[in-house]
Amino acid sequence: MRNIAVIPKGADTLFTTDSVDAQISLWTIFKGRPVFSELKIANAYLTARKTKTQNNYSFLLRKKPAEPSVKKSKTGRNYGEILNNLIETAFENVPEAVTFRNLLVTYEGDNRNIRVNMPLLTVDEGNISSSLTVQTDSLINKLHVEGNINPDDYQISANLYTTDTAGIRIPYIKEKYGAKLSFDSLKVSLTDKVYKQNRLTIKGEGRMNKLLVNHPKVADGDVQIDKGAINYVVTIGQDYYSLDTLSRVTLNKMVIYPQARLITQPSKRIALKVRSAQTEANDFFESLPKGMFETLEGIKAQGYLTYNMNFYVDMAQVDSLKFNSGLEGKYFNILSYGKTDLRRMNEPFEHTVYEYGKPLRTFTVGPQNPNFTPYNQISNYLKNSILTSEDYGFFKHKGFHEGAFRHSMITNIKEKNFTRGGSTISMQLVKNVFLTRKKTVARKVEEMLIVWLIENNRLTSKQRMYEVYLNIIEWGPNVYGVKEASRFFFEKYPADLNLAESLFLTSIIPRPKAYRYSFDSYGNLRNRTKYYFKLISGIMLRRGLISQEEYDNLYPHVNLAGRARDLIVTATPAPDTTAVDSLQMDLVTPIDLLD
């Protein structure tokens, strides 16, 4: 056929070509389903145009009458069967030989322009070869494709790469998600498929080199993975999706075995397991994505590391959620610390406070600083009330509290939002001493790894860690450390704080800048803070941290002095007659109170 054109009525030309040479298998005609054995197209132009009022391609998208080819149940479609039908149809219609010369595909819309120029595409004896240029608005990718296809066994593989030093850039990611994504080369393959008992299982491989991701919620800058690969075994059925146990992920020099399962009926159930192979320590650190672990850059170690994680939740019974996670070391020992010495807390050090990503002030954490308070000069009431509220197991655990993570997940799933964290004192300390305060995925993961290194290698004693924590945390407007807090609120030394004052200071740690909301204009504590006093002191009594007499004599009131009083008290003091026992509040439960 020569000089073909497709011109929709009343619209611009959609398609033109100089010539189409096709051979059709006679046997497929007898089967009632003609399939090309050879297809050649030269000088073809496909131009799709869309304006606010019309386009020249919608006639191709008109829905056909539904065919009962896919089984449906009361719970919906079987997507395994749909995908199996799609794969079989696509492979059964692949010509034995294909040659496309000078193929130009364009899309012109009100807000989008796409242009694909393919000088040559060939499929010969299963071998696929093509070069093309893809222009999306102002973004241009020059690509090369090599691969092969075996329709009889449902096998296909393709290698996509570029000679552009900027790599292959994915369009619209920046516009839609505020991110950049690029890679140097990509290999994807389908090696096997089996449809059995209404479930489709597909096997294949994916490989990517020089993957680069940039997103403000991921990290401050670019995150790069030099080599990544996945060998996947995926099963899809009626309300069932799984990444099977034979799947394997390679991250640079690290091998990870993921397993995932999603069942959507009668309730949504999610299971996830991750197990890493035993990895030589230096290979482990070198395999971490660049840009996500800046504090640990250059670290050297000996021994082996292994990571395991298990997660399961039934969305109909969220409280039964199960979670455990752990990094295990074998003969592990740090040889050098690289960019940051994780032992820095053992000696006096300079600490910089950041606010909104900018440095606010710097001070020494040690005896050289007149505001530094040694551990044994801090009121036991304060130390015990903070442990009770923030992390009672601090002196026993190794940096993590799985129960806290579990309860945090339950709360966040129920609220459908991140409303509660599960940070231990160790994690809060590492965040303040070693990392920025930005809430990124990279910072949180790096925080957890640093905590594990410090706690499991005993780089700093627990008492010293708690001492540093009490001397650097925020307690008000430019108020950092226990001595500044004691003076700001009570004009006292930390050793002289009583039970009520200690409970108040503990109550404002989660939101120190909101300390004024703990008081009314007369300087009396508001109801929610009184409830907090009763809750935490009751737990301290049960744990033997205070006596019955101290508990009975506790009155939910503090005498403000100094700068805090001038900022809070604006009216003549009035007596407070609110009964604590009848108070109710929406309280964020301390992580250890739940176990």
CATH architecture group name of the largest domain: Orthogonal Bundle
C-alpha-based Rg, rounded: 32 Å
Question: Proportion of β residues?
Answer: 35-45%
CATH class of the largest domain: Mainly Alpha
Dominant shape: elongated
What's the mean pLDDT score? 88
CATH superfamily of the largest domain: Biosynthetic peptidoglycan transglycosylase-like
How many structural domains are formed by the residues? 4
- Number of strand segments: 26
Q: Quickly count the helices.
A: 14
Low-confidence stretches: 572-595
What structural category characterises the helix and strand content? alpha+beta
Major sheet summary line: 20 strands, mixed
* Terminal-residue CA separation: 77 Å
CATH topology name of the largest domain, in short, is Penicillin binding protein transpeptidase fold
Helix residue percentage: 10-25%
Domain Glycosyl transferase family: 358-532
InterPro entries: Glyco_trans_51, Lysozyme-like_dom_sf, PBP_transglycosylase, Pep_trsgly
GO molecular function: pentosyltransferase activity
Protein name: Transglycosylase domain-containing protein
